[in-house]
Amino acid sequence: MSINKRLLMTLTAVMLMLTGCTDQHIIERAGFVRTIAYDLSGEGENTKLRVTVSIPKSNHEDAIVYSTMAESGKKAKMIFDRQNNRRLVNGQLRQVIFGERLARRGVWSNMDTLTRDPSIGSRLHIIVAESDPHHILIRNDYPQGPTAGEYIDTLIRTEAKAGEIPDTTLYTFTRDYYDDGIDPVATILKEEKEALSVDGIALFKNDQYVGKIDADDRMFFALLHHGVRAGDLNVSIQTDRNAEEQATLEYLSSKRRIKVLSTRDIREGRPIQVALRIRLSGSLLEYIGALDMKKRTDQRKLEAELEKTINRKCQKLIDHMQEKKSDPMGIGQYVRNSIPHSVWKQLKWEEVFSKADISVHVDVKIRDYGKMLH
Amino acid sequence: MNEKLSAFHIATLIYMIENNIVLFALPRLVAENMGTNGWVGYIFLALVSTGNILLYLVVYRMGKGRSMFDILEKSLSKWILYPVYAGLAVFYIMIASFVGKNFFLIFQMISFQTSNVMFIFLLFCIMVYFLLIKPVYSIGKAATVFAFMTWWTLLLTSYQAREWKLVRLTSYFFEDPAGGQVLHNWAEVYTSFIGYELCIFLFPYVNKKSKLFKGVLYGHLLTALAQVIVLLTAFGFFSFQQLQSLLYPIIDMLDFIEMPFINRVENLVFVIFVFGNLISTTMFSFASLSMVKRIFPKTRPKRLEFLIVLGVFIVGFYSKYLSQSEYQLRRVLFTEIGIAFILPMLLIMVLLIQKLRERMNSHEH
Amino acid sequence: MDIFAKIKHFFVAGEQEKTTVKEPEKNEHPSLEHTIRQFENSMDFIHRTYPHCKVDVIYLAFLVGNDQLLQEIIQPFTDADEEQVKTVLSRSQYVVVVDSKECINGILNGKAAVFFRDSTYLVDIAKPAGRSIEQSETETVISGPHDGFVENIGQNLGVLRQRLKSSHLKFIKLEVGEVTKNVVVIAYIEGLANQEIVDELIRRIQRIEYNAVTDSNMLIQFIDENPNSIFPQFMTTERPDAIVSKLVAGRVAGFVDGSPSGFTCPTAFFDFFSSPDDYYQRWLIGTALRVLRFIGFLITISFTAFYVSVTTYHYEMIPHTMLLNLTESRAKVPFPPLLEALLMETTIELLREAGARLPTKVGQTIGIVGGIVIGQAAVQAGFTSNILIIAVATSAIASFVIPSYIMSASIRLIRFGLIIMAGILGNLGLLMAIGMVVIHLAGVTNMGTSYLTPLAPINFKDMLDTYIRGPFWALRSRPTIVRTPNKKINKMRK
Fold it and tell me: What is the domain range of residue A317?
């Protein structure tokens, strides 16, 4: 009996040694895809999906870039596998870039695989590129970082951390896409001669790219979208002194609150009333203007002027969003909470949103005026 | 060692058994079956299960701590009971196997896509064997150590706090469940509470000082509390429709956590739940073992345990795919809910009959 | 019929076997010829005769001290006649012996056997050889007493008595070893230690049947309940202050003649992580030290294994800042991470074992050569990655944080098992291996108490002195593991 037991145990031990063999992803033998770019190329009938992947090399200097036409992302991966001497794995995917044309058509069909695959993390950034994504990835002469993938990664991370652009990851996109009270957003990247720049925020309706918030306005959008934690705001104040003055608030922190004032007769098509209250505070570190910061009255005047300008800017943005029928601020969520379920279900929120009366109230508090006293 | 379990260890034992079986899919189950703000319904179900535990308490008190077998065999003939024991033993082996295997099938989906699950399950069954041959007191000790190693995973919900928004919970209650508000669906959520009914097999191993039911109630309520916290976090973190479409929302929640020196902690945290899985499978096997031991009391030590673990392993061959396994598990757990309710009621009836008979006998004399 | 009988025999226990009881041997009266025959042909066997008083003295030359020999044997018996011899032999140091075995034992223990007429007497003139008290080499503390036990049990017990001046401290003498007849002494404080534990310990030691038991560490392997476990179940220490504190806590201690370690019981797993050092520092610092030791324990068993599992299976867990560094460092290595890790771990174990065998003068050079040069050369040759070297070196250092050398040896062995399991199944393998260790630990007991106290069975008061070093005003009672009849730590029951 004991010899049999020993034999059995040795057999089991040997079999167990072989268990995980096929699942090994030994790191130096795996090719980590860091960025995937999807866009459309060709015209009319010949429009096809083009997939580009960027795989960083371990010397930190280069990246291997593959590109092909394929019907879907996974099919393209199979083509790339044939070319690469390592196994391509998606576990370290950091960014997904959509070309503008594809984004206008709708991104969800390609995002489906990203949400299904359990090896892909939910923190990967969703980016819409205004220029050709393939070209963005192929260049490796950026001064900020040798490879495009790393550069984009750190660029977006730093911007999002400060709160200047909303953090657009696969998780936030999926969450907002499914939610019927809010629309997702993405970051827009533009290629310039020496650098890549964050060129604005992409507005989506369901999964189609419908509108853009300019880069100059992105801070105002951030105030509307979420609570900013540490951002910089530059305002060109239009004053009654017939001059244009500049003020910059740094280390900005803001809170926003949405209140649904009235939803009466919403079924009959009467526009709803929503009030958006933004409370922000920051340090005034640049002021080019006529007011004197030593005087209390002038301080208040500056705050009032800032409020007016910010208010106007925000209102303009909201009008723009209403025109595009995209609600990234999530007003729909608050409206949903204030009307009965059956009413909400029958509503076409994008129509109601575009006709809604949304008013913005800004409350500016200048925390300090820097080191100087005037 | 004939030491008795104490309340703390019973609590951790029940906590480890319950906190694991349906945990990963729980937010989706609640969202699908109960609709928006389903976590309120979950609290209600927790109260129902507490009521069930109180039924067991009544059995304990009325029977004065006697084991279930003694109570039954006093009134009913052995020849009726032995087939019932055998049937229940086989049933518990099935539960143990499905519960154990399901975890590894989920794990296969995440990390080890091409490995043969049965090898990993074999290793797992060997661990179950080594745990099963020890007395219940040692199983309780091991469960306590495992509980200390895993309780901190609950604290990871604080990482989701930044993205948590109250407004996503919506102000509707129980709207939009997929499939309507049906008892069957609510029962599906109730399967996450299964585990407390194993307390009846612990009757012979406790004494008055152990405060068995204090431990069981604490363990159960602790599990319910932990689940409610997780549910609340999930409902505020994901949008409602998203929650209905994610297969295992807990894994997605863990996916989100990013720490500076380690990413994607779900690869580690999910695996930590293997300990809970181990305790669940072992305790169900223990239930089966108690039944079989009653039928064959004079066997050598370790032989019956070996047979039962072999049974668990062989039944494991039956469910090969995740979807199939989930379905089997659900069916088996539904039956277990039924048994959890019917068994104490049956025992109470038997005890009442016995009391009546005693009273009649004492009247005659 | 046969098959059914076989199945039945497989499942149902058979009858118990009868144990035979040994019959006690009959006494034999000691005689000179018999004794001479036992000891002849050995050059240290001395037989002195004093024919004028008809006294024969037998002793072993290397066991006796010259002064004692002079005083007890040479002086009284030279120039004495028979009557004076009788008076001399009636003194208390000359003990009458009636059993031949006892007589021979006495000679072996350094006594001299005096044969006069028909009686035999034993007189103690022993002066055993041994080193003087000095600091133990394996257990050192920075601030605290620096003396350690030596090989002679008399000296050890003397040191103990000097430190513990209580009349309740009792010593019980036993003998083990068929050939060596080594003396074992059990020490305990009556009223503080549980009498059942003492009796059980005595019973177990008396049951030992083995040729030679030369050291405490060997003795404790005979008397424990889980001989196949990796973990040590009795605590051994060479420090008198540690033994004293354990005795006062209510534990039972034991010494073996010829061994500088004393052992104590009952012990729990977490006792191996405490050092006397903790009590000589302030409690916050002592707590920090204890916590550091537990962290060291976790690091040493899991760090390398975690590295293996992450680089082999779970690459997604690597943060992106480290990913390329890691890949680059592994790029030249021809082995998969599991083999690489096992190679490095084995090398470190070889270094450690070699360092333990080498004389101190050569040891330091080899340490430097092995540690630095081999490590560096291995990385440059492309055998291993430098991150693995860091992992292995950190694990090795962390394993020496554990005060008990034997426990750290056990833990090092577990580390290998964990690395192999991590290489087979990644994180799941690692955690399942840890689970197996926990399952094993849950079944280990020491003198009837659970090995995992105070974690399981749970006792919050005991935790004040296990996971942290609680301040002295909070440590009010003795640990529950000792099952003492006298709980309060500040008062002795009169």
Answer: 227-374
Claim to verify: residue A232 and residue A211 sit in the same structural domain: no
Same domain, A161 and A254: no
Q: Is residue A185 situated within a structural domain?
A: yes
Neighbours of chain A (3+ CB pairs under 8 A): B, C
Which residues of chain B fall below pLDDT 50? Answer: 1
Residue A140 sits in the same domain as residue A193: yes
C-beta of residue C73 within 8 angstroms of C-beta of residue C7:
no
Nearest chain C residue (CA) to A16: C424
My answer on whether A358 and A309 are in the same domain is yes
Question: Can you give the residue ranges of every domain in chain B?
Answer: 7-364
| Per-window interface: C 398-457 vs A, CB < 8 A | 424-426, 429
**Which CATH number is A231's domain given?**
3.30.300.210
Give C351-367 pLDDT, tens digit per residue. 888 877 887 777 777 77
For residue A119, list chain B residues with Cβ-Cβ distance below 8 A. Answer: 110
Which chain B residues in 330-349 lie under 8 Å from chain C, judged by CB atoms? none
* Residue B92: per-residue pLDDT: 92
Confidence of residue A5 (pLDDT cuts 50, 70, 90): low
A-chain CB neighbours of B168 within 8 Å are 179, 333
Is B170 in the A-facing interface, judged by CB distances under 8 Å? Answer: yes
Contacts of B167 in chain A (CB under 8 A): 330, 333-334, 337
> Are B272 and C455 inside 8 Å of each other by CB?
no
Is B122 in contact with A12 (Cβ distance < 8 A)?
yes
What does the domain layout of chain C look like in residue ranges? 32-124, 153-265, 296-449
A336 CB neighbours in chain B (<8 A) are 170-171
Cβ distance A24 to C424 less than 8 Å, yes or no, reads no
Q: What are the tens digits of pLDDT across the range B260-317?
A: 888 888 888 888 889 999 999 999 999 999 888 888 888 777 788 888 999 999 998 8
CATH topology of domain B7-364: Amino acid/polyamine transporter I (1.20.1740)
Residue of B363 and A315 predicted with greater confidence: A315
Pair A306, A359 in one domain: yes
Give the pLDDT confidence score for residue A290 in this predicted structure: 77
- From A194, A215, A236, give the residue that closes a domain: A215
| Alpha-carbon distances of C35 from B130, C44, C106, C107, C112, rounded to whole Å | 56, 14, 11, 10, 12
Instruction: Give contacts of B136 with chain C, Cβ < 8 Å.
Output: none
pTM of the model: 0.86
* A175–B242 CB contact, under 8 Å: yes
Q: 3-state SS string over chain B?
A: CCCCCCHHHHHHHHHHHHCCCCHHHHHHHHHHHHCCCCHHHHHHHHHHHHHHHHHHHHHHHHCCCCCHHHHHHHHCCHHHHHHHHHHHHHHHHHHHHHHHHHHHHHHHHHCCCCCCHHHHHHHHHHHHHHHHCCCHHHHHHHHHHHHHHHHHHHHHHHHHHHHCCHHHHCCCCCCCCCCCCCHHHHHHHHHHHCCHHHHHHHHHHCCHHHCHHHHHHHHHHHHHHHHHHHHHHHHHHCCHHHHHHCCCHHHHHHHCCEECCEECCHHHHHHHCHHHHHHHHHHHHHHHHHHHHHHCCCECCCHHHHHHHHHHHHHHCCCCCHHHHHHHHHHHHHHHHHHHHHHHHHHHHHHHHHHHHHHHHHHHC
Residue A266 falls within a domain, yes or no? yes
Whether residue A189 is found in the same domain as residue A58 = yes
In this predicted structure, what is the pLDDT of residue C30? 73
- pLDDT category at C436 given cuts 50, 70, 90 is very high
Q: Is the pLDDT of residue C20 over 60?
A: no
Comparing B293-302, C131-140, C151-160, C391-400, the range with the smallest average pLDDT is C131-140
